[in-house]
Amino acid sequence: MSAADDLAWQRAQVGSGVVFSAFLVAHLLNQAVAALGQARYDAVQERLRAGYQSPPVEWLAVFLALLVHLVTALVRWRRRPKAMAPLPPRLRLQRLTGRFLSAVIVGHITATRVVPGLAGVHPGFAGVAFTFEWVPAFFWPYYLLLAVAGWYHLVAGLSTAAGGLRRSAVFWAVVAVGGAAMTAGVLGLGGVLADVGHPASSPYARLLLGLVRR
User: Fold this and answer.
1) Rounded to whole angstroms, how far apart are CA atoms 149 and 172?
2) Alpha-carbon torsion (209, 189, 159, 63), positive or negative
């Protein structure tokens, strides 16, 4: 790939990432609020959903932006020279988290938006909390990795788009504080920091169990 071609793909990747980051910030903010319990989580999510799930916003700023970001990342990865100098830790971790998120994002969207949307169900706090009780060996590490990787990739990506945080200590402080908030949110959904009640009775839980039993 020529330098000019790579620059064009890079601009498309960065631009789509910046657009998608507006949704991701809202999504991860909601994740952190889960540490405060179901009422706060569902109230915040209800307000945020009114914006990012409106058809023009969701299709353009979420789905289309995400698709462009994934495609451009894949193209640049496939065309990248095999022999390269060792990457700085920040960039190496950014690429690793990006690959992990790329591997799980379609399944995540399908399970939390497409399938419940078709069924007229919204997962909410109780629905997500149910998954921790349902298959804890999978969902505990999955949600921890998803939340922390999502936060790191967001911070690293916006830092790159803005020219980078000059002071490494500031960058890692932002990553650490946000990572702690993401972890607290997962602990809330898992019933460690918040009362989850009886999530198996939620509409989303019944939907999942019904699909599995078919």
Assistant:
1) 14
2) positive
- Residue 174: CB partners within 8 Å, gap ≥ 6? 155, 165
What does the block give as tokens for 11?
Answer: 């601009």
**What is the full DSSP assignment across 172-183?**
HHHHHHHHHHHH
Spatial separation of the C-alpha atoms in residues 154 and 28, rounded to whole Å: 10
Task: List, for residues 131-174, the tens digit of each pLDDT value.
Answer: 999 999 999 999 999 999 999 999 999 988 877 666 788 899 99
Question: Residues 6 or more apart from 187 whose CB is under 8 A from it?
Answer: 35, 193
Q: How far apart, in whole angstroms, are the C-alpha atoms of residue 136 and residue 138?
A: 5
Nearest in space to 20 (alpha carbons), one of 120, 117, 84, 101: 101
